[in-house]
Amino acid sequence: MHLRAKPWATDWLAAHSDIVITQGRATEQIGQWQKLFAKAQPIHVEIGSGKGQFILGMALAHPEINYIGMEIQETAVAIAARKSFDQVGELPNLRYIYGNGNGVETYFEKTEVEKIYLNFSDPWPKTRHESRRLTYKTFLQSYEAVLPEHGEVEFKTDNRHLFEYSIVSFMNYGMRWATTDFTLDLHADEEKVIGNVETEYEQKFMAKGQPIYKIKAHF
Ligand SMILES: C[S@@+](CC[C@H](N)C(=O)[O-])C[C@H]1O[C@@H](n2cnc3c(N)ncnc32)[C@H](O)[C@@H]1O
Prior knowledge:
The chain is α/β, with parallel strands linked by helices. It has a single domain, classed as Vaccinia Virus protein VP39 (Rossmann fold), CATH 3.40.50. Helices cover 33% and strands 17% of the residues. The protein contains eight helices and eight strands. The chain has helices at 9-15, 23-28, 53-61, 74-88, 104-107, 137-146, 160-173, 200-207; strands spanning 20-22, 43-47, 66-71, 94-98, 115-119, 152-157, 182-183, 213-218. Strands 1-4-3-2-5-6-8-7 form an eight-stranded mixed beta sheet, with helices on both faces. Helix 1 packs across helix 4. The protein is globular and about 45 Å long. The protein binds S-adenosylmethionine. S-adenosylmethionine binds next to strand 3 and helix 8. S-adenosylmethionine binds at residues 1, 47-50, 70-73, 76, 100-102, 119-122, 199-202.
């Protein structure tokens, strides 16, 4: 997803640097993320948070968790943060990083993040772009470096090829999952869909009648 630049984005981000942390500042924040939130409580990170519907929905539904939406596109993170700010003001448990998920271990120390979400990650279908897929082994190394032992990665996608690729990548990396933490049609599963917060892409693909694949895998 590439969004056309919004003329207000850079200024808005500069004026709200307490909510959106840029990549440079994120590396200085290592080991001290709890100070940016009202309460010290588990931190969950979504990598590739796009326009932010999921991370805002999760932050509202779970005040007992601190959420960070990480996004590489300035326009997307600005839209996400402004939308949530305009709708509900500054939430005590929601912050954003304008940065690359590839460097996640330079922003957080081991165990600083309790869980990672990947939602409808860009599929990068060409083999020569494999290393850009958010479930490529180098990304898994980065996630493992910030999560606790047996830390969890929760992944949803509409893309069958990326899903199959990711399962093989998780397996090759030695990650594990319970059969109950896996579905080829999330919205047809009455139990697994309880508490599900839909993303923008999820709603788009559901409207087309496409199944949503989901797996919760742990290191
Ligand atoms: C297809 S969109 C999905 C957005 C949202 N998660 C959803 O489900 O509606 C993928 C998003 O991931 C972001 N992204 C891709 N690679 C990234 C990376 N290495 N680090 C952070 N964000 C990334 C893209 O800019 C884009 O906004």
